[in-house]
Amino acid sequence: MVWRSQRAVTVIAAGLALGLTAACGSGGGSADDDGPVTITWQAAPFGDRSDDARHYLVDAFEREHPGIDVEVVSAPTNVDTNRASLATQILGQASTPDVYNGDVSWAAQFASAGLALPIGDHVAAGFWDKFDPATVAGASFEGTAYGVPLTLDQSFLYYREDLLEKHGLPVPTTWEEVAEQSEILREAGDVDYGVAWQGASYEGLTCVVNEFLAAGGGGLVTADGSRPDVAAPGSRGALEFLGGLIDDGVSPRATTTYQEPQALQAFTGGQAAFLRNWSYAYDTANAAGSGVAGRVGVTAMPALEQGDGTRASTVGGWNVYINPHTRQQEAALTFVQWLTGAETQRLMAERSSTIPTVDSVRNAPEVRELSPVLRASADNDLVSRPTTSPYYTQVSQATYTTVNSMLSGSLSASEAVRRLASDIEAALAGRRL
Amino acid sequence: MTAHAWPPGRTRAARTRPGGRPPRRSRVAWWYTAPTLLVVALVTIFPIGFSVVMSFSRVELSSSGFSFTDWSTDNYAAVLQSPVWREALVFTVLYTLVSVAVELVLGVLVALVLERLTAARGWLMALLLIPWAMITVISAQLWSYIFNSAYGAASWLLGLFTDEPPVILGTPASAFSAILVADVWKTTPFVAIIVLAGLVTIDRSVYEAAEMDGSGPWSTFWRITLPLLRTTLAIAVLFRVLQAFGIFDLPFVLTSGGPGTSTQPLALLGWRVMFQNLNMGAGAAVAASTALIVFLACLLCLRAFRAQVGEEEVR
C-alpha cells in the first residue's frame, strides 16, 4: 500500500505526534506577476552579531536585483531546533522558506529525505570550481551537490598571550605542549585550569572527538566511510589523551557539561589559559565585557605527538540550501549563487569576520590580513565529519553520548572504544534509531 | 473535577448510579459537548491514529512527501532491541516512580499545613502556585544557572562541604537528583492543592468522633484522614504519572539527556529519533509505545485505588 499524504495533514501529524506544533508558511507571489517576486530566506544569525549579516546582505542583493525581494525569516539559534522546524515544514510540502541556511553536516540527511533541491543539477558544472573540493564533497550526496558552502568555520586554539609571555613559553603546536604549559601556569597560580573545550553530550563533542582522532592518526570512520575506525591504535590513544585532560586536571571536571558558551566563559573569565573554539570566539574574547580582552592570541589547532603532525581542525559552517518545493526556483538559484559569489564572500569577511568559502577570496593576502583568525587558518588541517552518510546524525549521537559517558567516568577508554565501534557500525548500517 | 463525584465513606445507596440521568438530559449533554469532542478528535485522536499507522509502516521520505509502504512491526522490533530505548525506558520509569512518590508525600504535608491555616491560606496558595504557573523551559533555565558548576548557587553551597565544588549535572546520579529537585519544586504545589481540596471535604464530625474515642493525631491521620483521601490521591497520582512519564523539557534544558544518555527520557528520545534523525517510523513507534505504557500504568493506578475503596465499602 502506498499513499501520499497531503501537506496540511502531514504537517499537523508530524508536529502533533510528539506534542509540537508546526507552523507552515505560505507560498510567495507567482513568478508571472508584474511586480518583483518575493523569496524567503530562513537563517539564524551568523558572523559578528553586532552587525547582522542577513540584513546587509539582503539590502545589497536587492540593490543589484530589483526584480527579487528577499524576506528574512529568523531561524532558531539552537541547531537541532532549527533542523526540526525546517524538516516539519518541508516534509509537509511547504513552499517556503525558499532558501535556508543549514549546517554543513545536514547535506546527506536532507538530500536523502528530499528536504533539499539538488542544486548541482541546476547550475553549470564550472560553478563549483571556486570552492575547496572537500567542502563541495561535504555538501553532496551520491555525487550531486545539494548545498552551496556559505561560510567555512573551523576550530582554533586560543591562548593567553600575557601568560605565555610572562613565563617565556612558546605558542604550543602540540596537545602535549598544551598540557605541559597548563601545568606550569596552574602551579604558578595564574589560572585554575589549562584548556577549556566542549565535552557536553551534543554535536560539539563529536567535532572535538573527530579532530582528536584525526590528530592521533585515526578517525571515526574509515576513509571510504563504510566502517568504524575507532579501534585503530591511533584513535584509541587519542581518546585516552582526551580523557586524561580531565583526569589530570588540565581541563575542569565540568567540561562534561560545557558547550561553546561555557567553555568560552571559562576562558574569558580568566579560569582557563587555553580554549578550543570556533572562529567567532576571537572577537568575543576581545570584546568589552571579556575579562581577558586584548590579551588573547589565536593559533592553528595543535597536533598529537603520537600522530603524524596533522593539526586537525573540524570543518563547520553553514551551507545554503533550496527548498525543493519552492515556487521561485529561478530567483532562489540567483540568490544562492549571489550569496556564494566572490564579491559577497569578500563583503562578509570584511563586515562579519566570516571565513570565506571561495578559495581565491580566502587566500587573498588582503583578506588574510583582516584578522589573526584568518591568518591562523592557513596552518589548520581541515578534517570533515563523516557527513556523507545519510545516517551521520546517528553516528554523531553514538559518538557524543559514548565519549561523554567516558569523560564523566562511567566508561573506561577501552569500553568506550568497544561501544563506539559497535554503535557506529550499527548507525552506518541504518540499524540505530 | 471529579474529586467530589464519588466521595468515599458514604453508603452505596446514597451514591448516584453512573449513567443514572434521564435519557433526554443525556442527549442534550451530548449536543453541548459535541463541538469540544470534535476538536479533541481532530487535534488528539487523529494525530495519535496517524502516528500509530506510521509506526507500523516503512516510511520513505522524498521530495514528494511521505510514502508508507510495507505494513510491518519492524519499527517496534528496532525500538525494542535498541539499548538506547531500554535506557530511556528505565530512566523514565524510575523518574516517574521517584518523583511521584516524593511529590505525593510533600504535597500531603503541605496540604495538611495549609488546611490548618486560616488567615493567610489564600495568599500562601497563590504564592505556592507560582512555580507551577511558570513555563517549565524558563524555570529549567533558571535551575541550570543554580546548578552551573562555575557560578551556580547550588554548586557553591555543596562546595562548602567538599574539596572542590561538585559538577552537579556531570554525573548520572547527581544529574538525576537535580532534575528531580527542579520537578519537585514545580509540581509539589499542584499535588498540595488537589489534596487540600480533598481535605476540606472531610466531615469534621468524623474527627470529633475519633477524638472522643481517644484517637491521637498520628492514628487519626493514618486511620481517618488518609483513607478518606484515597480518591483524591488517586486523582493526584494519575495526573502526576501522566506528566512525569512524558517529561521532556527539564532534561532537554538541563542535561540534554547527559551524561551519556543517562537522563534521556522516552519523549526526548522520540523527538530525537523523529526530528533529528528523521527516522519517522521508529520515532512514531517510540511515541506510540510510550503512550501505551503510560495508558496501562494509569489503568493500573486506578485499579489499585479503586480496589482499596471497594474493600472499605464492604467493611
Automatic annotation (TrEMBL), chain A:
It holds the Pfam family SBP_bac_1. Residues 1-31 form the signal peptide. InterPro entries: SBP. This is ABC transporter substrate-binding protein. PANTHER family: MALTOSE-BINDING PERIPLASMIC PROTEIN, MALTOSE_MALTODEXTRIN-BINDING PERIPLASMIC PROTEIN. Belongs to the bacterial solute-binding protein 1 family. The keyword Coiled coil does not apply. Keywords: Signal, Transport. It comes from Streptomyces litchfieldiae.
Automatic annotation (TrEMBL), chain B:
The chain crosses the membrane at residues 29-56, 88-114, 126-146, 228-248, 282-305. Pfam families: BPD_transp_1. It is found in: Cell membrane. Residues 1-24 are annotated as: Disordered. This is Sugar ABC transporter permease. Residues 7-19 have a biased composition (Low complexity). It is a multi-pass membrane protein. It comes from the Bacteria. CDD domains: TM_PBP2 (cd06261). Belongs to the binding-protein-dependent transport system permease family. Residues 89-301 form the ABC transmembrane type-1 domain. Keywords: Cell membrane, Membrane, Transmembrane, Transmembrane helix, Transport. InterPro entries: MetI-like (IPR000515), MetI-like_sf (IPR035906). PANTHER family: BLR7065 PROTEIN, SPERMIDINE_PUTRESCINE TRANSPORT SYSTEM PERMEASE PROTEIN. It comes from Streptomyces litchfieldiae.
